[in-house]
Amino acid sequence: MTLTIDSHIVFLATRDLPVTAAFYEKTIGLTLALDQGKCKIYQVAQAAFLGFCAKDEIPARDGVIVTLVTREVDEWYEQLRSKGVIFEKAPAYNPEYRIYHCFVRDPNGYLLEIQRFEDPRWE
After folding, report:
1. Single pTM value for the model
2. Beta carbons of 37 and 48 less than 8 angstroms apart
3. Hey, is 36 helix, strand or coil?
4. Digitized pLDDT (tens) for each residue of the chain, 123 residues in all
5. Which H or E run includes 82?
6. Cα 67–53–70 angle (5° rounding)?
7. Which CATH architecture has domain 8-122?
8. What number of CA atoms fall less than 13 Å from residue 78's CA on the CB side?
9. Is the separation of the CB atoms in 21 and 34 below 8 Å?
10. Could you give the CA distance from residue 14 to residue 108 in angstroms, rounded to a whole number?
11. Torsion of CA 17, 30, 51, 57, to 10 degrees
């Protein structure tokens, strides 16, 4: 018997839930799917979610990358720049991974990547 998974949520800690909520709702434009008081869950795609929970201490962020996959990397870059977002890396092609991507930090210091696959298997 093969079991299925219906959806996916990644939870991350935040010291300032209102600032994080404003960034993901107003700047990025994600839809708030569920407000649990100390946690807010955002819909990223049909069955993919990103949750933030208020914590006094945030564990190390080393190696954490939240990647949003889209064909519109340049459009996202321009839209977010127009809202005052400062990027750590402008859109560029990465031949090693065959992706086109850019990077920005969210208010918690998490690395947010906006990426398009350039590998024909993903088209």
Report:
1. 0.86
2. no
3. coil
4. 887 888 999 999 999 999 999 999 999 999 999 999 999 999 999 999 999 999 998 888 888 999 999 999 999 999 999 999 999 999 999 999 999 999 999 999 999 999 999 977 666
5. helix 73-82
6. 20
7. Roll (3.10)
8. 4
9. no
10. 6
11. -30
